Amino acid sequence: LPAAEVLSERGAVTSLQHGSSYICRRRNNSPTGKPSEHSYGNALDIMGVGFADGSMLAIEPREREGTLEEAFQDAIRAGACLSFTTVLGPGSDAAHANHLHFDIKARNGGFRLCQ
Questions:
Q1: Rounded to the nearest 10 degrees, how much is the dihedral formed by the CA atoms of 50, 14, 43, 70?
Q2: Cα dihedral sign for 69, 78, 28, 22?
């Protein structure tokens, strides 16, 4: 990730702390409703990013912090919208407050949901 170079004192990105990947469930773990893209194996949740110095940047609400960590997290989210059709994270809804959700759900007209 080129954005990681801004956090150069931490070194290169060496790992991603993942949450859910394939798991058969409904959206947001609701008892009713549409199946989650996780249930099709089309989604991945990232909880944090690990660096060469051993530090971990947790995905969490960072709105208006004005920190490099906020900018890095925003860069991950924005960059992911180029490859994934759904990108959700802190600020999009309560269910995504502590992770970034990426999926490849096909939508009409190539619409992308990036929040």
A1: 40
A2: negative
Model pLDDT for residues 82-110, shown as the tens digit of each residue = 999 999 999 999 989 999 999 999 889 98
Q: Are 27 and 40 in contact (CB under 8 A)?
A: no
Alpha carbon distances (Å) from 91 to 62, 63, 94: 9, 8, 7
| Residue reference for tokens 């530090």 | 55
Q: Which amino acid appears at position 94 of this protein?
A: A
Query: Are the C-beta atoms of 73 and 29 separated by less than 8 Å?
Result: no
Which residue segments constitute the domains of the chain, with CATH numbers given? 2-114 (3.30.1380)
* Token pair for 87: 């990108």
Residue 39 in contact with residue 29, Cβ under 8 Å?
no
Place of tokens 């600020």: 91
Given a cut of 70, whether residue 42 has pLDDT beyond it is yes
The strand pair at 113-114 and 13-18 is best described as: unpaired
Neighbours of 2 (CB within 10 A): 7
